[in-house]
Amino acid sequence: MVFTKEEYNSRLTAIKQQMSKKALDILIITDPSNMNYTTGYDGWSFYVPQGVIIALDHEEPIWFGRMQDSKGAKVTTFLKEENILGYPEDLIQSPPRHPYDYITDFLNSKNWANKNIGVEMDSYYYSAECHARLMDQCPNATFHDAHLLINWIRYIKSDNEIKYMKDASILVQLGMQRAYDSIKPGVRQNQVAGNIQQSLLSGKDEMGGEYSGLNIILASGVSASASHLTPTDKKFKENEGTIIELGGVKKRYHCALSRTVYIGKPDPKTNDTLKITNEGVERAIEKTKPGNTCHDVAVAFWDVLEKYGLEKDSRCGYSIGLGYPPDWGEHTLSIRKNDMTILQPNVTFHLMAGMWMDTWGLEISESIRVTENGCELFCDFPRSLHLI
Amino acid sequence: MVFTKEEYNSRLTAIKQQMSKKALDILIITDPSNMNYTTGYDGWSFYVPQGVIIALDHEEPIWFGRMQDSKGAKVTTFLKEENILGYPEDLIQSPPRHPYDYITDFLNSKNWANKNIGVEMDSYYYSAECHARLMDQCPNATFHDAHLLINWIRYIKSDNEIKYMKDASILVQLGMQRAYDSIKPGVRQNQVAGNIQQSLLSGKDEMGGEYSGLNIILASGVSASASHLTPTDKKFKENEGTIIELGGVKKRYHCALSRTVYIGKPDPKTNDTLKITNEGVERAIEKTKPGNTCHDVAVAFWDVLEKYGLEKDSRCGYSIGLGYPPDWGEHTLSIRKNDMTILQPNVTFHLMAGMWMDTWGLEISESIRVTENGCELFCDFPRSLHLI
Lengths: 388, 388
Description:
Distance between the termini of chain A: 44 Å
Shape of chain A: globular
Strand order of the largest sheet of chain A: 4-3-2-1-5-6
Mean pLDDT of chain A: 97
Largest sheet of chain A: 6 strands, mixed
Number of domains of chain A: 2
Largest interface: A-B, 88 and 88 residues
Number of helices of chain A: 10
CATH topology of the largest domain in chain A: Creatine Amidinohydrolase
Low-confidence stretches of chain A: none
Radius of gyration of chain A: 22 Å
Oligomer: homodimer
């Protein structure tokens, strides 16, 4: 058990309160992060349909998934066996049959198919087909969009969740240091990525890490002008900058960190842009405290950029914490102008200053926890351009 | 360019032929593998809505995605700039707005919103919300399920695709050997996983690898009774078996390999079950040749299991090749009884004998190419129980 039964119970209570408020009898969850949050389930089985059903009139959540993965649910969740549903193998990737045929049968058998049912319309792995099967086969149900209902409950972290993110911060700093130590002219990008992964996963002392919701982002030269390219056979070379974005992960909780490396003597535009970006990051951190909004933090960041005539169209941050591929972001707050979400103690976000220019780029980021009076950084890692 | 323009063109021709056959004017793709197959696009950006539009009356595919990722499309695809559409940042994770509002505007602007439009109803990252936006905002379009249309074109690999899978086979064998060399009593699972990742990514000589569609599966003891658990801080110990499932990846093409390791002297049930499983794997390989069906291969495998009274409910294989998280499977053939798909030269699949028992488990697998007269294994790696 990753958290106490009490912590899972308090999560469930908060969810059921929200369900009542929104007049939902049933909630069907498919986002693997929300499945983990409500049951502890942890397995790389989200490539087939699976989910968790929460019903106001049923005490425990109900896990459903492929029969062979139900053993993983027994190993990783606190659920009673009666609340673990494995659907038959012959529904796997054999259209026209589909695993949701089983789910709709189950809903009908429980007399839940004529209820108000919340579904996560825009969550990962809730395909158009899953939704179409539910609507077709439960014609007396009323479906409501409950996307982000649980994510907003996850918005404020418990101290136990923060502890895992602090563990993750140790891992991500090991990974970034390994990157710094490995990058040399003539070395392949994927050799460096291999070293980074070794550090992120092996960790140190008694603690190692896990696969990340977002893979290692590492790109050099013109490829650093794009935000999400990944390591290749390309070799590092002189007079090129490299962006590196990494996640340390403990019990599925993430700490992200981005830095920029340059081999040789950086040109003035790289140096200047990094200085300006760092000034923006510092102003944003100063504005991060309870009661301020995401908008306030964004204004502080962009005021600096605008002072120097620098442009950046994309947001400069988002909530971070519990995650599975393809993301470590929690899809609640964004650090951008007009996001009026109010910061509160134990809100955590990734302040991400990615400057993707015409033919080059740089990245500086920090994972941040809002404290009672201000904020603290998860990592203690210099933000300067790292020179090789 | 990962493939020649001619190869991309021939793929597009085959897709447009299928579209004509099914009376589709427009095809909207969201599976990242299919996006890569049609355009070469390669980036970890599938955590936000993105896709490729193919229109019978438009020569090139059209990539769409977040504005900041459009630079990645310029770097990795062969598309003309006019066929790369970046949608504005303020649509990112800011409901009630949604990126598909932009896509429906685009379809309307091209006069495509009253056409027959194919969508991949059950593909990864095509959420219920994406589909609802399309239907609401293109009320004069007729939507058809085109799920797997492209996957079935991918069913037979080109020689160039096979070459990348052979590169991937070198990587996955390095990874498995590293696992064998690293597992010792008292070592943490994630230390071994770190070493494995280093080998999978760093590769050797001039070639390294990429992140896999399926993460490292590694589980010991009772956790090996489940199919998809991943490495933790748990330490290896005497008299326990460990299942390991790995993927080598080159240019997004996968070669998978599973083996079982035992520390100490294995009990008779582990030894016997492994021998039976290996006999089944051998019979299945013998039946793998053009003209035979997946059913034929499955019968050969299960005949052995039944002879010895062993049960296995889950399929024992599936098509493999091009993939992105969460999967390396291609969702076409399955090796199971009554799958009457006919094998043909350059069909590739992962013959996966996972035996997940009550309180323990074992795995043996091979990635296989169907040849002109039979088949060949991508790897040359002993299938015996590896003893530490």
